[in-house]
Structures are given as structure tokens and as C-alpha cells.
Amino acid sequence: MTLYLIVGLPGAGKTTRAKELEVSESALRLTPDDWQRAIFCDDSPTRWRSSERVDHRERIEGKLVEVGMRAAQLGVDVVLDFGLWGRDERSALRSIAASLGIVAQVVYLPIDYAEQRRRVTSRYASEPGQFQMDDTELEGWHGVFQVPDEDELSGAPIPPVPPGHRTWSHWASTRWPSLPEL
After folding, report:
1. Residue 79 contacts residue 30 (beta carbons within 8 Å)
2. In angstroms, how far is CA 109 from the centroid of its own chain?
3. In sequence order, which ranges of the chain are alpha helices (DSSP H)?
4. What is the rounded distance in angstroms from the CA atom of residue 166 to the CA atom of residue 128?
5. Which CATH number fits domain 2-175: 3.40.50.300, 3.10.20.90, 3.30.499.10, 3.10.120.10?
6. Nearest of 95, 68, 94, 98 to residue 81 by alpha carbon
7. Residues 163 and 77 sit within 8 Å (Cβ to Cβ)
8. What ranges do the domains of the chain cover?
9. Structure letter (DSSP) for residue 83
10. Sign (positive or negative) of CA dihedral 119, 151, 71, 174
């Protein structure tokens, strides 16, 4: 089975690509934005940035990772449409997948700032209730996003776990508090 890790900034086309894979690969698509909007449907479009909602999102993501790994173990391809901005997040998921006999594939969708702003603005106009993002946030996110390198994209060996963690699974359960060590 394959675990597709959809990587990119807001507006890069992650959910569009995830939906394509969902159909072409008969995969289970797991998108935290969908869950967050459904659970917190009365929130304003900017409330998702509150510390409370950030904590909720991390917990939602952790449960989706757990469900996704289990589904893949049961024979279903899975698409994690999370963004996965950090190399450590991607390494942890690749490592967990490998330990469970699942192939992980990083799918990176690059986007430049001008196109990102255009797409995000268009999304607001066509899909009411979308998360609001201002120019300062969009610009700042380009600075913290860790672009996957050729090693990640080609499925090269996973780097060592960061200091202070026993395994990548331990790192992941710290990153996503609702995710048990797998």
C-alpha cells in the first residue's frame, strides 16, 4: 500500500491533487481542514489561528495519521493532505509507514508568492467560509516552509531521529499529541 504525503503551502493545490489521487488510486483522503471546518463550523474564518484551534488541529492530525496508517495496513492506499511543512514531520511519517510495511511517497506542490496570493484570494471569493490568510502570514510561511529535497522526493533513506527522541514514532507522538507510538 502507498501513503501519499501531500506537501505544500496554502494555495499550492494540495487538496486538488489529493482529490485526484483519491480517485485515481482508490485511496482514502484525509484532510484536517475538512474535519476542522466540520467540527468548528461556527468559528469565524480567522479563529483557526487561535492557540486553542492550533492544539485542536494537531490532535485532529494525530488521529488522522493513526487512522491512515491502520487503513494502509488493511490494504487501502491513503492520502494525507496536511501540508507537512517540516522535514521532520515527513521523516517521521515515512519512518512509521516503513515500519508498518507501507510505502510512503512525498508529493510536493511548489508555489510562488504571487500565484499563492492569487489562488487564496480566488478561494475566498468562490468558497465562503475558507480560512482567512493575510499577506504577512503568507510571506512569513514561505520563510519557515522546508522544501523537500531530492532525497525525500526519491524515497532515499530516512535521516536519523532528532536528539531527545528514541524513535521517529516517539517524535511523532510528541508532535501530534493524540497519536500513540506506532
Report:
1. yes
2. 12
3. 14-24, 32-39, 51-73, 87-99, 113-126, 135-144, 150-154, 168-175
4. 44
5. 3.40.50.300
6. 68
7. no
8. 2-175
9. E
10. negative
Question: In a structure prediction context, what are the per-residue pLDDT tens digits for the chain, which is 182 residues long?
Answer: 999 999 999 999 999 999 999 999 999 999 998 888 777 777 666 655 667 767 888 999 999 999 999 999 999 999 999 999 999 999 999 999 999 999 999 999 999 989 988 988 887 677 666 677 788 888 899 999 999 999 999 999 999 999 999 999 999 999 999 999 98
User: How much is the pTM?
Assistant: 0.91
Q: Which three cell numbers stand for residue 113?
A: 508568492
Q: What is the CA radius of gyration of the chain?
A: 16
Q: Can you give the length of the chain in residues?
A: 182
Residue located via cell numbers 495496513: 73
